Amino acid sequence: MKAVHSLIFSAVVVLPAAHAQDDQRTTTMKTTPGAGSAVQTTRVSAQIVRLDPGTRTIDLKQRNGEVVEIKAGERVRNFDQLRVGDMVNAEYEEAVSLELRKGTAGIRERVESANASQAEHGATPGASAEKRVMVLADVVSVNMKDQKVKLRGTHGTFDVKVRDPEQLKLVKKGDQVEINYRQAMAISVNQQPNGAMK
For this UniProt entry, which residues form the secretion signal (predicted)? Predict the structure, then answer.
């Protein structure tokens, strides 16, 4: 698990390139009365321009031309499979959904789960990781002017901004809100023939 998290962390270093025009970011939002969801997916690619097996460092050239150096710890599998010219692809997704439960306040809950996987020994390097959090929180108050709902969960109170006034009208003290959050990352390497540069 630590090996995968090391590789995932390395890929996160490359994610600022998502702001470059050549990379892809999509956001999808859906609402129905008393419920809503949003998903943001970012895809980033960078090319390996230098490898140092001695220090296990990799120089990645982002699409905006910037070169970022990352270190692959000893637990990252299949370093020897990497070649200059290979493309490292990362896909990062964040999703959140909220659902209103009328008049059910009282039982608060928080459930977290995580899983990760990595390439088998000798295979093309790659890894994935996912984290999920479910929170069931009580509605403490509704501030129509500031468009905020104060919620009490298992770890204290927090505010949620509700921009849609029609959705806000549905929320009352004594209701509950179920919030589901998901964060996922997948990394793959597209190996170029003979380490050819694209």
Answer: 1-20
pLDDT tens across the length of the chain (198 residues): 444 444 444 444 444 444 444 468 899 999 999 999 999 998 888 899 999 988 988 888 888 888 888 877 666 677 888 889 998 888 889 999 999 999 887 889 999 999 888 777 777 777 788 999 999 999 999 999 999 999 999 999 999 999 899 999 999 999 999 999 999 988 888 877 654 444
For residue 89, give its domain range. 2-195
* Contact residues for 123 (Cβ-Cβ < 8 A; gap 6+): 78, 81
Q: From its phi and psi, is residue 43 left (phi > 0), alpha (psi between -120 and 50) or beta?
A: beta
For residue 13, the SS3 value is helix
Helix (H) or strand (E) holding 183: strand 176-190
